[in-house]
Amino acid sequence: MTEMVYGTVPVRAGEPVLPRWWRTIDKWSLSGVLVLFGIGLLLGLAASVPLAEKNGLDPFYYVTRQAFFGGMAILAMLVTSMMSPDLVRRLGVVGFLGAFVALLLLPVFGTDFGKGAVRWYSLGFASFQPSEFLKPGFVIMVAWLMAAAQEINGPPGRLYSFVLTLVIVVFLALQPDFGQACLILFAWGVMYFVAGAPIMLLTGVGGLVVAGGIFAYDASEHFARRIDGFLSADVDPRTQIGYATNAIQEGGFFGVGVGEGTVKWSLPDAHTDFIIAVAAEEYGLILVLLIIALYASITARSLFRLMRERDPFTRLAGTGLACAFGVQAMINIGVAVRLLPAKGMTLPFVSYGGSSVIASGIALGMLLAFTRARPQGRIEDFLIKRGR
Questions:
Q1: Is the separation of the CB atoms in 138 and 96 below 8 Å?
Q2: Structural domain boundaries, residue 362
Q3: I need a labelling partner for 68 at 20 to 30 A (CA). Which of 8, 124, 272, 291 fits?
Q4: pTM of the model
Q5: Which stretches of 82-155 are DSSP H helices?
Q6: Is the preceding peptide bond at 50 cis, omega within 30 degrees of 0?
Q7: Residue 14, domain member (yes or no)
């Protein structure tokens, strides 16, 4: 238990990979991810059956696909979590470059599947969303640049990271995908803050975000419609937000019962963006609080373990991944309960979606690799020795 909390373990020469991985991994966070995936399959059994029947498919078509993609995600997470931070950095940079090229080619080869935003590549048997895979690679790339800037005679990595972030945000906004753009910008801001950015600079960036939001409201009908719907005092009961709000109210503390919910028959995105509404209606506030607690505990535990990390790259990359994971969950749940405008963002490991769940598996694998206990002293011990 001490190793799980403080993350300092002795070196064991010649120890096999699997025993060393199991001894050093954050078992509580790993267990939390597996529980979230199990909850996602449980909710998928309820939320996706109406959609499958509507499309003339086998009742458990989407659940089977979710289990398949989820199995790939868990495998990717486990394999990635066994890697060293240096290997994660190399693979993350290569993955970022590939996803970035795919993002640039979306206007030419992408499709919108009738949803008004060109975010996907159609592969026939499945679809591929580059922005989902871009996020973990982006965090690794930015952390590498910022860590390099802290070295003596290092490059201006912070400036490079800011320029790179602006380019990605612009391309995402042009899709339009304002939700992912905001998440990318948030992840950069958190890492920049941890890297020692002056608060006035971050305040200036915040002002640019507000100005960008005002411009997007004037220039994009899609963006303006969502903001107007969020700010409206009345909720149209025939909209997705209206159905989700009513379902959450109907669920109460203990829900209406397994399989007894009705929102899954009305919401076209009940199995993806509004999966939390299905959970609230059929299982009640109890399950929703459990889901929130799992996301919060994984994020908080990761950040506490990273506080003791001495390597700047590992600390920055892990912080960006943990915060992006937690904030994405917060945004999805916030949209469902009408605390935030609609974003079109999935709930990691719970919502249906091949790209989303596999990318989440890779991101959490990287985070688990960064938070593994390593044979190093605590950062406070290092600072005390430097001060002597």
A1: yes
A2: 20-387
A3: 291
A4: 0.88
A5: 85-104, 106-109, 130-149
A6: no
A7: no
Q: Which residue has the tokens 């992912």?
A: 180
Residues paired with 8 in a beta bridge: 374
- Is 137 among the domain residues? yes
6: in domain = no
CA gap 262, 282 in Å, rounded: 9
pLDDT tens series, the chain, 388 aa: 444 444 445 556 567 788 889 999 999 999 999 999 999 999 888 888 788 888 888 888 888 999 999 999 999 999 999 999 999 999 999 999 999 999 999 888 888 876 767 888 888 777 888 999 999 999 999 999 999 998 888 889 998 999 999 999 988 888 878 888 889 999 999 999 998 877 777 787 778 778 877 877 777 776 777 777 666 666 655 667 777 878 888 888 888 887 777 788 777 777 788 889 889 999 999 999 999 999 999 999 999 999 988 899 999 999 999 999 999 999 999 888 888 877 778 899 999 888 899 999 999 999 999 999 876 545 555 455 455 5
